[in-house]
Amino acid sequence: MIYNEVASNDLFIESLQGERNKVQTFLKENPGMKVIDVGGAMGSWAEPRVDAYLDINATQYLSKTEALLFDGNLSDPEGYDSVLKHVEEHGKFDFAICTQTLEDIRNPSFVLDMLPKIAKKGYIDVPSKYHEFRITELPQPLSDWGLTQYNRGYTGHRWIMNMFEGVFEMYPKLPFVYNIAALDYLKVDEPEPLEKGMLCFWWKDSIEWKIVGDDFLGPNPPSVYKMYSEGLKKGL
Fold first, then answer.
1. Candidates 3.40.50, 1.10.10, 1.25.40, 3.40.120; correct CATH number of 2-232?
2. What is the mean pLDDT of residues 117-129?
3. Phi/psi of residue 9, each to 5°?
4. Is the pLDDT assigned to residue 12 strictly greater than 90?
5. Which of 47, 70, 164, 181 stands the most exposed, by the fewest C-beta atoms within 10 Å?
6. CB 46 within 8 A of CB 27
């Protein structure tokens, strides 16, 4: 279920900072909320309104914080043992923040299933599909990086994200995608328009998601090309 607590569209691509400002305002207006940041241990933008962190690096990066720290690999069931035990004893968190995380990890669908189990509602943002098609400007000569050409999107990202009819869609980020002529319109200019920078949404109770092809990329190359080109033409 996609929802928005503030006066805005249910589904949107917007300036990252603009939408996060809305989240900050929402949390400020609800000071009693217990907030958990999932995946943001290396630099949460919501402090000091974060009461807990769930991240594989939580203790390493936040040893001096007063917030609760739950170390765990977000892609693995065992990574949630400590936070689920806390939730069983104290109830769900009121709000979960998960930003610029799902595109990096092995199993984002598992995180999307787990978030409603530890929180009542929350906010997610990821790079938009347009952002993943932009040319990344590297600060040094390519040879210093051991590269022969500029990269599209970010090197560490594993997924291209989309939103279509209220369903959060995930496409494995494979190199061939950037050679599909039908997707050339996604290659935004530098600097990119703000409204095409990030995919942001709020959720409540549950999150509807799908992985392209139901996690099967086949049965042959033309069918995969069609799956990407037709799927990414739809939605946000």
1. 3.40.50
2. 95
3. -70, 155
4. no
5. 181
6. yes
> Does residue 171 carry a pLDDT above 90?
yes
Instruction: Say if residue 38 is exposed, middle or buried (CB neighbours under 10 Å; 0-12, 13-18, 19+).
Output: buried
Q: Which pLDDT belongs to residue 196?
A: 74
12 secondary structure, DSSP code: E
H helix or E strand, kind and range, residue 23: helix 16-28
Q: Answer for the pair 232, 212: CB distance below 8 angstroms, yes or no.
A: no
**C-alpha closest to that of 124 among 197, 51, 202, 72:** 202
In this model, does residue 15 exceed pLDDT 90?
no
Q: What is the 3-state secondary structure (H, E, C) of 173-235?
A: CCHHHHHCHHHHHHCCCCCCCHHHCEEEEEEECECCEEEHHHHCCCCCHHHHHHHHHHHHCCC
Where are the chain's structural domains?
2-232
Structure tokens at 189: 């200019």
Alpha carbon distances (Å) from 57 to 34, 60, 70, 84, 107: 21, 5, 9, 18, 17
Beta strand 121-127 with 198-204 is antiparallel
* Separation between Cα atoms, residue 93 and residue 116, nearest integer Å: 10
DSSP 156-176: T--EEEEEETTEEEEEE--GG
Residues contacting 77, CB < 8 A, separation 6+: 110
Question: Mean of the pLDDT values across residues 202-219?
Answer: 92
